Amino acid sequence: MGSVTRKPLIAGNWKMNLDHLQAVAFVQKLHWTLKDAGHENDSVEVAVFPPFTDIRTVQTLIDADKIPFALGAQDLSTKDSGAYTGEVSGAFLAKLDARYVIIGHSERREYHGESDDVVAAKVQAALRHGLVPVICVGETAEDLEKFGASAVPAGQLKTALEGVASDADIVVAYEPVWAIGSGQAATPDQAQEVCAKLRAVVAESLGADAAEKTRVLYGGSVKSGNIASFMREPDVDGALVGGASLVVDEFAAIIRYQKHVGV
């Protein structure tokens, strides 16, 4: 399958970094940096995923300054409302004009015990409120040695897509757990192999049309020096960027990968 019709998505997951004042400075500087560099905003979609406490502030800034960044959240509750202290509803995120929400990130799976079934319930919660779930899947080093690269993420995705409508708007993010924050990214060939398998899972679960339109991202030690090599692969439609998304010049260079390689 070709990626001609899929607009690349470069998404910055800030994790638990940047307070709301730092977020304003960051978004403004990133916007100015891209404008100064002549970035064509319609060629690549840019999304930022700040902490919950920053979302309203970033939304206001994006609206007021007409900054062409999409806004996302890093998680949501399986519940829509009620006595769930500390949880954040998809309804609240939708009211803040969030477009995306990360679901099933390896840190949520590891530190908060989120099972594949919980991830699937969160996908449904996102879709109920018109949010686009960015469904994260990936294997640990132990999984890789025992099962190979694609078996675990393919199984995670298959469960996450149970009950999802064929016309649903979703994004899939392949993040090998062994690569996250390690400085050791997968090779482009490895990323392509798994992303192609994940697209096949989408085709099996939701149909060929859904697989053709669904963007599959790579994440895990993405930086300006390797982004172009990933984006050359036919089934890699963008990147979910962690640490490098917190450095304005580095994140801008990742967004502008096309300028450097003529992709």
Describe the structure concisely for a colleague.
The chain is of the alpha/beta class. The chain contains 12 helices and 8 strands. An 8-stranded parallel barrel has the order 1-2-3-4-5-6-7-8, surrounded by 5 helices.
Structure, explained:
The protein is built from twelve helices and eight strands. It has 263 residues and is of the alpha/beta class. The chain has a single domain, classed as Aldolase class I (TIM Barrel, Alpha-Beta Barrel). Helix 1 packs across helix 11. The chain is globular and about 45 Å long. The chain starts with 8 loop residues before the first strand and ends with a helix.
- Kindly, what is the distance between the CA atoms of the first and last residues, rounded to a whole number of angstroms? 17 Å
CATH homology-level superfamily: Aldolase class I
Please state the overall shape, judged from the principal axes of the Cα atoms.
globular
Level-2 CATH architecture: Alpha-Beta Barrel
Spatial order of the strands forming the largest sheet? 1-2-3-4-5-6-7-8
Mean pLDDT: 93
Q: Could you tell me the CATH topology label.
A: TIM Barrel
Provide the gyration radius in Å: 17 Å
- How many structural domains are formed by the residues? 1
Category from helices, strands and their pairing:
alpha/beta
DSSP E strands, number: 8
Low-confidence stretches: none
Largest pleated sheet? 8 strands, parallel, barrel
Content of β-strand: 5-15%
The residue fraction in helices comes out at 40-55%
The run of helices and strands is EHEHEHEHHEHHEHHEHEHH
* The CATH top-level class label: Alpha Beta
Count the helices. How many? 12
